[in-house]
Design goal:
The protein is mainly α. It contains four helices and no strands. The protein has one domain (3-64).
């Protein structure tokens, strides 16, 4: 199953914790900073919703990129 299919399935199943991980994986698999930032913002948004252990890491990463204050 492709990463895109996994993301769609996780959305369909409302598996927000898995979406955090999948969007982080997606961020690692793109070449443009804008795309990477997009996927990290998605991961961060879902992480906040479920109090995921990656919240602080994702926030620090987004702040360092100038995407989050």
């Amino acid at each position: 199953m492709s990463l895109n299919e996994k993301i769609l399935e996780a959305h369909q199943n409302k598996n927000l914790s898995l979406l955090v991980e999948l969007y982080q994986e997606a961020a690692k698999n793109v070449s443009k900073a804008e795309e990477e930032n997009f996927f990290l913002v998605q991961a961060y948004t879902f992480a906040l919703e479920v109090s995921h252990s990656q919240v602080l890491f994702l926030r620090r990463e987004l702040v360092s990129r100038g995407v989050e204050e």
